[in-house]
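Risk register update: the risk of archive-format incompatibility is retired. Evidence:
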Amino acid sequence: MALSAFAQEQPLLQALPNLDKRQRSEPPAERRAAATRLKAAVPDTAVEFDDVTGAPKHIISRKGPLDKRPRPQEAHGEVKAFLRENAALFGHGPEALDRARVKRYSTGRHNGVRTVVWEQQVGDIPVFDGVFIAHTTANGELASVSSQFVADPEQATQRGMPNWAAKKAKLPISQELAQAIAARNMGGESRALSAKLVWLPMSADAMRLAWEVYVKAQPSGDAYRLFVDAESGEILLRHARTFYLRDATYNIFTRSPAPMSPALPSPGTNQAPLVSRTMVTIAALSTNASPVGWIGDAEEETRGNNVDAHLDRNGDDQPDLPRPHGGPGRMFDFSADLTRGPTSYGEAATVNLFYWCNWMHDRLYGFGFDEGAG
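Archived output:
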């Protein structure tokens, strides 16, 4: 889904590039093996791992629920039963939920889907992005699970910051000092807006205590989020939080290339007249759903926060590069002769796919498929 952002209409130069000192790696072999077992047991299941924590950040079956069994007689029983059976995949069992805080609970207005979001904590300090999200149907079937939980958070804190409890009583870097460090890092007359203490996962098994600081950079006015190490004062992570909306132009079919209403009552040779493509200029269908637009300010190809559209002719789940490129003017205008074979208009088809997938993303957002529902 779309990310939270501060939006501007006219782009200004970004003062500093993003910075990220976290360690990224492939998930452990035992987690990959557990994912393989789950895929064998539940048809057409997809598992995507977080590249820092190694947690399965998205698990869903495209053909139905992950678990149809009757709900156990305990709170969030369907989720906990799934965790018990797949503990090797998550690196923990249901006890991790018992130690976490329920951050949000909601029920879909249109379909009764229940969404529960747990937040991982250590010593009453939240783990940055440490959320576990479960979606359960109105019938009690587990539909999907997302996790960015650290497998063993207590051990990760001791590995990343030994004797942290004693240090926390008198941190070398106070909240005020962290704000000053963050503002100085941005330069000029930049000023810190807010700061709070969080655990920042630096790898799958190590976390550091850090101050999460929001800074307004000057003279640009751009907002940044920085993580200042609470012990050393080092900047561990810096991300721009101001994004600029820019239009792009797509040569696409705004309806079926050969429409019928909806089809012939019986097989025949008649065919509706072909419809021409239309040049559509748009940043996003909804800036509530896509506050950064369909394509990021620095991008010029069919890839964005919502959709990554590309060809994959050999079916290896890797994009055929390059993706369709719109150039500095973001003009995605590629030839398409439908009388020829489909391999002759791959770029035009990819642009069409990118447009409509983003369109559906923004429309579905208005029907409840938003951050609140996970």
